[in-house]
Specification:
single chain, alpha+beta, 9-stranded antiparallel sheet, 4 helices
């Protein structure tokens, strides 16, 4: 089946023991990524941390990159993606390497991954109708109680850790795209609570991203296809 899949966003969050990072070191990180990552703006919010962004505004169909550094974590956010997942994995590993070399922080407690994709499936011309009738087996008349037209509908599924050996969990949303009712919006959040040292396990974040993407592209998609 010719399923069309587009990467919409990738978010990676790494937690470390709370610490104070000197402003000059954060500035050094900004200087290093300003050219290679297209980062152009730097701002500090006392309670929120430091923001480094590409300066793009959401809605202009251009990639928006944000790096946020706080006392106990940093986030790497890529929105409105127009390149492959591997391209952004390269940026992620480069940022972590720069952060590690500049701050001497390489030990991370938890790693969270979020992937958002837009998906079109042949034969599904209205995802609202598909979710209501095929997935929920719901009589549309039941929705009349809202006395308003429905624009978006979806569901959330959480798969917690299975055992002490399998401690990863996945939080999934399957919804109608708010911009196009013919398109599914799928978000998967992978939570990986295994502590690791990036100096010796530099491939672990990449592995977790690929594991999260595989769960979406295989398990979640095959779940939806059952209702065709």
């Amino acid at each position: 089946m010719d399923i069309t899949t587009r990467l919409h966003a990738l978010v990676v969050e790494l937690f470390y023991a709370p610490t104070v990072i000197e402003d000059r070191k954060i500035r050094q990180i900004f200087d290093k990524v300003s050219d290679t990552h297209g980062i152009s703006t730097y701002s500090t919010l006392h309670a929120e941390g430091v923001f480094m962004t590409s300066g793009m505004q959401p809605g202009n169909n251009k990639v928006n990159i944000t790096y946020k550094i706080m006392k106990d974590r940093f986030l790497m956010v890529y929105e409105f993606c127009d390149k492959s997942l591997n391209y952004y994995i390269g940026l992620i590993n480069d940022f972590i390497e720069i952060f590690k070399n500049t701050t001497n922080i390489s030990f991370f407690i938890v790693n969270n991954i979020a992937i958002r994709k837009l998906i079109n499936i042949p034969g599904v011309n209205d995802t609202r109708e598909f979710i209501i009738k095929n997935m929920f087996s719901l009589n549309e008349e039941k929705l009349n109680v809202f006395q308003r037209p429905l624009h978006l509908i979806g569901t959330r599924i959480l798969f917690p850790a299975m055992s002490q050996l399998d401690i990863d969990s996945f939080d999934i949303k399957i919804e109608t795209s708010i911009e196009d009712f013919k398109t599914f919006f799928i978000e998967i959040k992978g939570i990986f609570p295994k502590p690791f040292d990036f100096s010796t396990e530099s491939n672990l974040v990449t592995g977790n991203i690929n594991k999260t993407e595989k769960f979406l592209s295989e398990n979640v998609i095959n779940f939806i296809l059952q209702f065709l």
